[in-house]
Amino acid sequence: MSLAARIPHTLKQVRPVLSTDHAEAKRRVLNLYKIWLRQIPYIRVDYIKNNWTEPRLRDIIKENFMRNKDVTDVRAIDLLVVRGQMDFVETAEIWRQQHNVAVFDSTKNTYKKKPASFLERFYEGY
Amino acid sequence: MLKTIIRHGCRLRPALNMRLPTSTLNTRLHTSSLSKANPHGQIWPCVFVSRRTSILEQNIKDAGQMRTPPPLTPRDIESRVLRICNDYDKIQEAHKNKITLATHFMNDLGLDSLDHVEIIVALENEFGFEVPDADYDKLYTIKAVVDYLIKRMNIVEHKKPVVSSASDPRYDHHHH
Fold it and tell me: Would you say residue B171 has pLDDT above 70?
């Protein structure tokens, strides 16, 4: 009998990061979303130079969550939630600068986009 | 007439009252103290009375504010929940004030779970307590939200007291 056959089935399962099933992962995501929503008035005050309104901030938060809407792997969702929590702490404790929070807002993101079409890439020198 | 009123007003002052039995010249004393307080002698009791009435009015106003508000009824909860949902901008875009109690947030209004959380946060702000995340999937229709709030806040519909000429039934036990 080979070694692979003798390994019990339970050992083959992947160890979960935080959540064991999709329902728990979803609950974590919704909790994170709620925390961000509750932080909105403080974000407005702490990063006042960005001149955000409350509905705009709600849209920004939702946009950032919807960016990962197609992730189905529970472990990947857990890692994204953990990253979101770290982002939240950095934002709430004002460890970020004004421009560093503005990155969340797609309209204020001034990072240079990578060229997509052939000619753009040609001009850039790729 | 006015002078007697003034004197009566003066006698209300505790300091003078204490001095009254001992002093033989109490009328003199009043007039002298009055003239010392202000030369015209007419303003002081008016000020006193107006101050007293203003204090009384303030007390009455405070008493009115300290009265307990009427208990919440299920109808209040319903109207407040409907108002919150109508104020929510994404619902306003989709269905303008077509919300009924049977409306389902996701099936009828096309909201996703994040919008649902936004509505729940608005409800928490309105009613002042936190909804645990295990209860989110119970709150998909407005009817369910209203029922949940009524259950959480222990709201009972009080019957209106019936006014009748019959004797108080509480005291009937003693007679029978």
Answer: no
Judge whether B160 lies within some domain: no
- Euclidean distance between the first and the last CA atom of chain A, given in angstroms as a whole number: 55
Which is nearest to A63 in space by CA: A112, A107, A116? A107
**How many domains, chain B?**
2
The residue range of the domain holding B32 is 2-66
What contacts A39, CB < 8 A, 6 or more positions away?
A: A88, A91, A92
Q: Residue B112 catalytic? A: yes
- A50 CA to chain B: closest CA distance, Å? 23
Q: What is the ipTM of this complex?
A: 0.77
pTM of the prediction? 0.66
Q: Is residue B102 part of a domain?
A: yes
Size of interface A-B (CB pairs under 8 A): 25
A66 touches chain B (CB under 8 A): yes
- Domain match, B145 and B86 both: yes
Confidence of residue B24 (pLDDT cuts 50, 70, 90): very low
8 A C-beta contact, residue B143 and residue B102: yes
Considering only CB atoms, B133 lies closest to which of A31, A37, A62, namely A31
